[in-house]
């Protein structure tokens, strides 16, 4: 690593001497300047690890100069090297938080030692800063639990898209965390200081949805006593989270398309075109492509909003997240209810792993909340879990065991058998069961279509 040192001195000779000293230090690169404007300019544009100054800049009083540097670059260590040292000035200067105070002339070795110490501190404080930043960003996503590749990928996308103003489409079954992700995008974007406005299209009657979205002018309809801004406008400089977009009528979809495309709208009953500066995030728990095929969702709007799609898989497809999520909720609810730490018994863990979680993470959260309320000790056992979950988990387990059994259970009769004949029988049966659908038949036997076709030919069954 090369350290960059900025030397500020009004005397040309001094700058030359110092440069020569640092030339002997391999890992140090020096930049020199003789006035405060250039110093501030450097600090604005470039990164330095250390600043050395004699504090005699023509334009500014010495302490004022120091404070200005400190306010620009808080973490930058400063060494003051002056020929006009006095105890009082040393005390004044040290009070401003400079790293070291040396009086010229100074021996090269002493200077080098001071510089090394300052650089060490500088890299430590940088390291600390990076660690802190890493922690902060983890904290920002800290409430989103999941180690499954799908969640890790979703979080990576959140990180990417947060830096932009792109429209995002989040899809996933109910309770998979769409709103949580939408919030994470907003709070990690440079719009975080602005509002996050949420509107669930499914929660608002069709006839009110339009005025909620676009607002209205006074007198636009009976009862419109004063002008009201719509949600798009309220989300100015922030983010608008439009949830359950599949519930919008065709007419509203057309108007939304205009906002997404041109970032402008007119309030109901208004003629003035209003510019809206908002990032739009949409979500749906339906498959948007299916809706487009069925003619229930405008294709052009779909293409416009799916610039950046994020898909959240159902919990049953990311089973490795079940236990970490459970622990997260256990901790949250036990703290909330003032209980000491509570754990899941092995039996309950097993039930959770088998359950289908149709309601996804929300369902898991509710199950845990209930269990924590019911639990008197510090271990959640099946008695704290609702019977419906126990039943479905047990059924699922039986299913799984049966499938496993089917694939292995076969006894060769004592007199032996013909493998070819047996194989032919199985292939014929698979065709019958799948009503001649070769893809399905191949799947029934755990074969690829190619291998299955080969066997059909082998037994003269292809036509
Ligand atoms: N990865 C996760 N880590 C922690 N909590 C999560 C996670 N995903 C979802 N949750 C929690 O689960 C609940 C449901 O999530 P959210 O409301 O975001 O789901 P949704 O997809 O918007 O559901 P719906 O379609 O029903 O509106 C919330 O309380 C949320 O905080
Ligand atoms: Mg939601």
Task: Please give a structural write-up.
- There is one protein chain.
- With about 475 residues, the protein is α/β, with parallel strands linked by helices.
- It folds into 4 domains: about 5-135, Rossmann fold; about 165-315, Rossmann fold; about 315-410, Helicase, Ruva Protein, domain 3 (Orthogonal Bundle), CATH 1.10.8; about 420-460, Arc Repressor Mutant, subunit A (Orthogonal Bundle).
- The protein has helices at about 10-25, 35-45, 60-70, 85-95, 110-140, 150-160, 180-185, 205-215, 230-235, 250-260, 290-295, 300-305, 320-335, 345-355, 360-375, 385-410, 420-435, 440-445, 450-460, and strands spanning about 5-10, 30-35, 50-55, 80, 100-105, 170, 195-200, 215, 230, 240-245, 265, 275, 280-285, 310, 345, 380.
- Helix 14 (about 345-355) packs across helix 16.
- The N and C termini lie far apart (about 70 Å).
- It binds adenosine-5'-triphosphate and magnesium ion.
Write a brief caption for the model:
The chain has 19 helices and 16 strands.
What's the helix and strand layout?
Elements: E1 3-8, H1 12-23, E2 28-33, H2 36-45, E3 50-53, H3 62-72, E4 78-82, H4 87-95, E5 100-103, H5 108-140, H6 149-162, E6 168-172, H7 178-187, E7 196-200, H8 206-214, E8 215-216, E9 228-229, H9 231-234, E10 239-243, H10 250-262, E11 264-265, E12 274-275, E13 279-284, H11 288-293, H12 299-305, E14 308-312, H13 322-336, E15 343-344, H14 346-354, H15 360-374, E16 379-380, H16 387-408, H17 419-433, H18 438-444, H19 449-458
Parallel strand pairs: 1-2, 1-3, 3-4, 4-5, 6-13, 6-14, 7-10, 10-13, 15-16
Antiparallel strand pairs: 8-9, 11-12
Bound molecules: adenosine-5'-triphosphate and magnesium ion (MG).
Residues 178-179, 243 line the site of magnesium ion.
């Amino acid at each position: 690593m090369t350290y960059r040192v900025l030397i500020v001195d009004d005397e040309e000779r001094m700058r030359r001497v110092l440069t020569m000293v640092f030339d002997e230090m391999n890992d140090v690169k020096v930049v020199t300047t003789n006035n405060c404007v250039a110093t501030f300019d450097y600090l604005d544009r470039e990164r330095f690890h250390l600043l050395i100054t004699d504090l005699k800049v023509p334009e500014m009083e010495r302490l004022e100069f120091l404070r200005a540097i400190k306010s620009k670059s808080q973490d930058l260590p400063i060494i003051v090297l002056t020929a006009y040292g006095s105890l009082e000035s040393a005390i004044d200067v040290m009070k401003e938080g400079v790293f070291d105070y040396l009086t010229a002339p100074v021996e090269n070795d002493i200077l080098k030692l001071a510089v090394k110490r300052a650089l060490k501190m500088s890299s430590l404080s940088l390291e600390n800063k990076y660690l802190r930043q890493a922690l902060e960003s983890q904290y920002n996503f800290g409430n989103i639990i999941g180690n499954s590749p799908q969640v890790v990928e979703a979080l990576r996308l959140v990180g990417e898209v947060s830096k932009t103003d792109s429209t995002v489409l989040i899809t996933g079954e109910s309770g998979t965390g769409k709103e949580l992700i939408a919030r994470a995008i907003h709070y990690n974007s440079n719009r975080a200081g602005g509002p996050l406005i949420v509107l669930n299209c499914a929660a608002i009657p069709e006839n009110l949805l339009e005025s909620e979205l676009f607002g209205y002018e006074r007198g636009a309809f009976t009862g419109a006593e004063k002008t009201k801004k719509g949600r798009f406008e309220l989300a100015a400089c922030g983010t608008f989270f439009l949830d359950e977009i599949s519930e919008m009528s065709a007419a509203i979809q057309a108007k939304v398309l205009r906002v997404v495309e041109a970032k402008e709208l007119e309030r109901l009953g208004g003629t003035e075109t209003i510019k809206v500066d908002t990032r739009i995030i949409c979500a749906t728990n339906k498959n948007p492509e299916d809706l487009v095929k069925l003619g229930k969702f405008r294709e052009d709007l779909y293409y416009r909003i799916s610039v950046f799609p994020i898909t959240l898989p159902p919990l049953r497809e990311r089973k490795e997240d079940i236990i970490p999520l459970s622990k997260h909720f256990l901790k949250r609810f036990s703290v909330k209810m003032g209980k000491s730490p509570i754990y899941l018994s092995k039996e309950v863990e097993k039930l959770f792993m088998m359950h289908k979680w149709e309601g996804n993470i929300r369902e898991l959260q509710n199950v845990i909340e209930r269990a924590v309320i019911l639990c008197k000790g510090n271990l959640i056992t099946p008695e704290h879990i609702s019977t419906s979950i126990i039943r479905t988990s047990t059924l699922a387990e039986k299913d799984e065991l049966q499938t496993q059994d089917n694939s292995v259970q076969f006894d060769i009769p004592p007199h032996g058998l013909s493998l070819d004949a047996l194989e032919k029988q199985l292939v014929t049966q698979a065709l019958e069961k799948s009503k001649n659908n070769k893809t399905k038949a191949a799947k029934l036997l755990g074969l690829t279509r190619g291998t299955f076709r080969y066997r059909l030919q082998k037994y003269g069954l292809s036509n």
